[in-house]
Design brief:
This protein has one helix and 35 strands. By secondary structure, it is mainly beta. The strands form five sheets. It has a 16-stranded parallel β-sheet that branches. A hairpin with a 4-residue loop joins strand 7 and strand 8.
Length: about 400
């Protein structure tokens, strides 16, 4: 970095970091050669030689497929989008990897009160009747980072979106969080978690640290409303209006959610986790639940609800929910379940992908279920599902709709 007096710095030209792309938005570099295009937005220097870059993505929708307008934003068609990690070798910068797992690039989500269907005022050749209102993540914009003493880096970022709304910057977007190993040169199993989705008529712009000391624990089991990384002795109850986020540490007792939001990553829970009747949640990566996990009777709501890359020593029950729930997916690593996994009577799409289940896996009476690449020590049984897709599963026996899948 240049240094000197203010007067001297006025004469220092602004230049692109060596090794960073110099291509223009047209796909041509300054020498006129065709080169890949990147869309950098926010940056965070973790140290003098490690730089994180938030790439907002290409901003395209509805140009590649007449059946799925969001395919433009998926990683294969939007390769620079996400959180890039760059390393300086003393001469130039090199892109090590780009983190996208859990970000849901090109996966639309619903926001209560926001328009649904297609916007007839925003059309293109493949969608003459209008592009869909529902937003989908396209990349990242503003971000804030923190380097921790254990060698990890926390990143909070705001998503960019694509939709048929006509003004991508006005879409209800999301606040996401991820932890990366500072010394890593290849990606691990880290995944983004959605901490908050903007309401209709609201957009999120960024995160800043408020003055004060970091909080390691809630002051009581009923006061989990913040970001924590310590050991809490006792039970935790999360209710409406609370945003309970653990990014490390442990909870010795049980966790019960009746509203608000729960996010657990790199956390050990001594007892059970129950999400009953309300709230949104994100469990994992690297979370261990020593008891059972229940997700029941959740109404339609905004936010992403997922169980990823976690160990549940007991049983898992996902039942009677009206909101989409992911129990593993291509962008959300599967889980290890010590007991049985039951997914029953859910009216919104449910994904069961890449899980290792010691007992039985039952998928029953769901409106739409996807069952892929699961391994059950007992039986895999699927019955009475209105829509069922699957494949690549192994089990002692595959029964019903899952026979042969």
């Amino acid at each position: 970095m240049p240094s000197g007096t203010s007067a001297a710095l006025l004469n220092v030209p602004i230049s692109i970091l060596p090794g960073f792309p110099t291509s223009l938005a047209s796909g041509m570099n300054q020498a006129g050669a065709t080169t890949p295009v990147m869309y950098p937005f926010g940056i965070f220097f973790a140290n003098a030689n490690t730089l994180y870059v938030a790439d907002e993505g290409n901003g395209n929708i509805g140009t590649l497929s007449s059946s799925n307008p969001y395919v433009d934003a998926t990683p294969q068609n939007n390769p620079s989008a996400g959180l890039q990690k760059w390393l300086f070798n003393g001469t130039s910068w090199t892109l090590l990897y780009t983190l996208t797992a859990g970000l849901g690039l090109g996966e639309p989500y619903t926001v209560p009160g926001y328009p649904t269907g297609n916007n007839s005022a925003h059309t293109d050749t493949l969608f003459p009747g209008g592009l869909p209102w529902a937003p989908a993540p396209d990349g990242l914009r503003n971000m804030t980072g923190r380097v921790n003493r254990d060698g990890t880096v926390n990143i909070w970022a705001i998503t960019s979106t694509v939709s048929g709304g006509g003004d991508q910057g006005a879409d209800p977007n999301q606040l996401v969080f991820i932890t990366d190993e500072l010394a890593a040169t290849t990606p691990g199993t880290e995944q983004f978690q959605v901490l908050r989705t903007a309401n209709a008529g609201e957009v999120l712009r960024g995160v800043s640290f408020a003055p004060g000391q970091p909080t390691s624990n809630p002051t009581s089991g009923n006061a989990c409303n913040g970001v924590y990384n310590g050991t809490f002795n006792g039970n935790i109850n999360v209710s409406a209006g609370q945003n309970c986020v653990f990014v490390g540490g442990s909870i010795t007792g049980n966790v019960k959610v009746s509203g608000g939001n729960l996010s657990l990553s790199n956390v050990s829970v001594g007892g059970n986790v129950q999400i009953l009747g309300g709230g949104t949640f994100s469990i994992g990566p690297a979370t261990v639940i020593n008891g059972n996990l229940q997700v029941q009777n959740l109404p339609m709501s905004m936010g992403q609800n997922q169980i990823c890359d976690s160990q549940i020593h007991g049983n898992v029950l996902v039942q009677n929910n009206g909101v989409a729930i992911v129990v593993g997916s291509p962008s959300c690593l599967g889980n290890v379940v010590g007991g049985n996994l039951q997914v029953q009577n859910n009216t919104a799409p449910t994904s069961i992908y890449g899980n290792t289940v010691s007992g039985n896996l039952l998928v029953q009476s769901n409106a739409s279920a996807a069952v892929f690449s699961d391994n059950a020590g007992g039986n895999l049984q699927c019955t009475d599902n209105a829509i069922l897709t699957g494949g690549g599963n192994t089990a002692k026996k595959t029964l019903g709709q899952c026979a042969g899948l």
